[in-house]
Write a structure and sequence with these properties.
The chain is mainly β. It contains eight helices and 48 strands. Strands 7, 8, 11, 12, 13, 41, 42, 43, 44, 45 and 46 form an eleven-stranded antiparallel beta sheet that branches. A five-stranded mixed beta sheet has the order 18-36-39-14-40, with no helix packed on it. A five-stranded antiparallel beta sheet has the order 15-16-17-34-35, with no helix packed on it.
């Protein structure tokens, strides 16, 4: 009788324990990364009233089972569904991290390591990555300063906002490359200045400079020359000027800096005269050579030889001074095809027998009489300086003949002979050398060749030096226009070499150690036809990767990202990325054997296996981390409520055992009455 009473008591206690487990599960239904628990029942001790006996073949008596009476139930085990992944909850907080897999974050209170699935982290005032609810530091691996990669060693606290991580150091440029097309028909290649291209680069302090290069034709089909012309500081000031130097070669060199000089004898133009006493030349110049901006006027150019001087008066000899105003008149006959093309762009209406131009309001304006023609042509591009435009004859749509007046300034002192010629006297000075070379000896700088007068004889013949610019590096292409080499056979790149110091014109020593040599790769350029337009670009960095050797300014921290492998990467506004560390994880042979320590923490036990102090990379066994997401509780409310119902019914049934046993005891006591 008493046994049933105590069995009921044991059952009540066990069901109460199960109810406690259910209550704890439901209470933690919204706890981050909480793992639900389940209680397993086990029967208690048994009292044997008769032992089992076997069958007796001799007597023919069969065996008897044991007779045992149980003493109730007990808690067999409380298991944790630790391997069951909780659902993902998006938070958009980059420091909220969810583990996918069976691993655990490693955190420390300063003296002991704990383990958690709760990835709600934050950064404390010291820059440490910590648990938001406890302040325990998140443990991981540090970056090896020698290699710049993760060193998997004993885990330590991750300090992601260390002062050293708030900024990135500048880097100087070590590589550059050139891409695009070098079109041999590009007129700039054969101009004195050449085809100009620039490349930016950084010094050791992160200041950005601009190197100015020029490409030149050398008179050979597949060969060109590229030279360094100047280097500008961040404010656009030439370093040669800034440091008070003689030339750019005192700062940096790019290939050879030699010039080839040859001297030849030239005879002067038969129409020129040389006066040895005054060391001056006299020669007649054509109208277009003496008038400023003559070739910039579309109407004047179209008129050609029909342009005549009217002031000074025709037939009169006059002295002209530089800057004096000269008036010319001209007449030009324009065909229908010319009128309908640039710069006139008129439209002829065959029905009306008249031309139309586009008015200021966008509507067509009919051109009929002389006044309309004059107004139309005055408004054309390139005709701004033309006056008194008149249509003197013509019948549209046949040829239209137009007369006009125009005013120009004289570019130099001259004597006008009254017949559209200007006699000019040029003293043999440095200021006049270019004009003398071109007008008297018909020599003009170009194709990388520069001329200077060395000596003029009594008869006006001259010894003239031709300086052929061999500065820089030669670029050679094959017959198909493909890049062959630069500088020498087999070379794909040329070095921009900086000097360590320079001496200014006033004797000061200029330190240039903030610069380093830059290797510039030319192998991506081609010598193809492109409509006379070269498309060369000079960029810093390597052609394989624009970030390799590109250099950069000093950078400020823009953001931090946690990768799927737990690597923490910082991003800076100069384009640099920097590895700050890696969150390590712990894995256990029996994670269900971990002991709950509260605050979403677990500690290792003998049955879970020990933590080795180093941890593992989460991706080693197929796991990953997801930033901006938290793992939710894996409590199943429907299952918990169902279990609660069965637990309640079990508790009620056990209470009935006590009630009935009490009734039986009462009847037994009443037997003495």
């Amino acid at each position: 009788m008493m046994r049933s009473l105590f069995s009921g008591v044991a059952g009540l206690k066990t069901h109460q324990t199960r109810m406690d487990v259910i209550g704890n599960n439901i209470a933690n239904v919204n706890t981050t990364a909480y793992k639900s628990q389940n209680m397993v029942f086990s029967d208690l001790l048994y009292q044997t009233t008769q032992a089992a006996s076997g069958a007796n073949a001799a007597t023919g008596r069969g065996g008897i089972n044991p007779r045992q009476i149980g003493l109730g139930s007990k808690t067999g085990a409380i298991s944790t569904a630790i391997a069951q992944q909780g659902s993902a909850q998006s938070t958009n907080n980059p420091w909220d991290i969810m583990i996918e897999g069976d691993a655990f974050f490693v955190v420390s209170d300063g003296s002991q390591n704990f383990f958690t699935r709760d990835g709600s982290f934050t950064v404390d005032g010291a820059g440490n990555l910590v648990m938001a609810n406890t302040g325990y530091t998140v443990m991981g691996w540090q970056v090896d300063p020698a290699t710049g990669d993760i060193r998997q060693d004993i885990v330590s606290a991750l300090t992601v906002m260390h002062p050293d991580n708030l900024n990135s150091d500048p880097e100087w440029t070590t590589n550059g490359y050139v891409s695009g097309i070098l079109d041999k028909k590009d007129t700039k290649l054969n101009s004195p200045d050449g085809l100009i291209r620039t490349m930016t680069f950084f010094d050791a302090q992160g200041y950005q400079y601009t190197a100015k290069f020029s490409f030149h034709g050398v008179g050979e089909e597949d060969r060109f020359r590229v030279q360094l012309d100047d280097i500008l500081d961040p404010d656009g000031i030439s370093l040669v000027k800034l440091y008070g130097l003689n030339n750019i070669e005192q700062i940096a060199t790019f290939g050879s800096s030699e010039n080839k000089i040859t001297t030849s004898k030239y005879t002067m133009d038969p129409n020129a005269k040389y006066d040895q006493a005054s060391n001056s030349f006299t020669i007649n110049m054509a109208l277009e050579e003496i008038l400023k901006d003559f070739s910039g006027n579309a109407m004047v150019v179209a008129a050609g030889d029909n342009v005549k001087v009217t002031n000074p008066a025709a037939g009169a000899t006059a002295n002209i001074t530089q800057g004096q105003e000269i008036t010319v008149t001209g007449e030009v006959t324009l065909t229908k095809a010319q009128l309908e093309s640039a710069p006139y762009n008129l439209i002829y209406d065959t029905d009306k027998g008249a031309y139309f131009m586009k008015g200021a309001d966008g509507k067509p304006v009919e051109i009929t009489d002389d006044t309309a023609w004059g107004n139309a042509l005055k408004s054309m591009k390139g005709l701004e300086s033309v006056e008194n435009v008149k249509v003197t004859k013509g019948d549209p749509p046949e040829n239209i003949t137009i007369s006009f007046d125009a005013k120009f300034e004289s570019t130099m002192d001259a004597v006008y002979d009254g017949n559209n010629n200007f006699g000019v006297t040029l003293e043999n000075t440095e200021a006049n050398q270019a004009a003398i070379l071109e007008q008297v000896y018909h020599v003009k700088d170009g194709d990388g060749k520069f001329y200077t007068i060395d000596f003029v004889g009594p008869d006006g013949s001259a010894q003239i030096n031709m300086t052929e610019n061999n500065k820089g590096n030669m670029i050679v292409f094959d017959s198909k226009g493909k890049f062959s080499y630069i500088g020498g056979q087999g070379q794909n790149s040329a070095m921009l070499t900086f000097n360590s110091s320079a001496s200014s014109m006033d004797g000061k020593n200029i330190d240039l150690s903030q610069f380093t040599n830059i290797d510039i790769d030319f192998s991506s350029i081609n010598n193809f036809g492109n409509g006379g337009m070269s498309t060369l670009e000079m960029l810093n960095g390597s052609k394989e990767s624009s970030t390799i050797g590109a250099g950069r300014k000093q950078g400020e921290l823009n953001g931090i990202e946690v990768g799927q492998d737990g690597r923490i990467t910082a991003y800076y506004d100069n384009g640099l990325t920097k590895l700050l560390g890696q969150i390590a994880v712990a894995e256990f042979a029996n994670p269900s054997g971990l002991s709950k320590a509260g605050n979403n923490l677990y500690s290792a036990t003998q049955n879970s296996g020990e933590f080795n102090g180093v941890g593992t990379d989460i991706t080693a066994n197929g796991g990953q981390m997801t930033s901006g997401v938290l793992e939710m509780s894996n409590v199943d409310l429907s299952g918990e409520f169902t279990t609660m119902i069965t637990t309640q019914r079990g508790f009620q049934a056990n209470s009935r055992i006590i009630t009935v046993s009490d009734t039986l005891l009462e009847e037994l006591v009443n037997l003495k009455r």
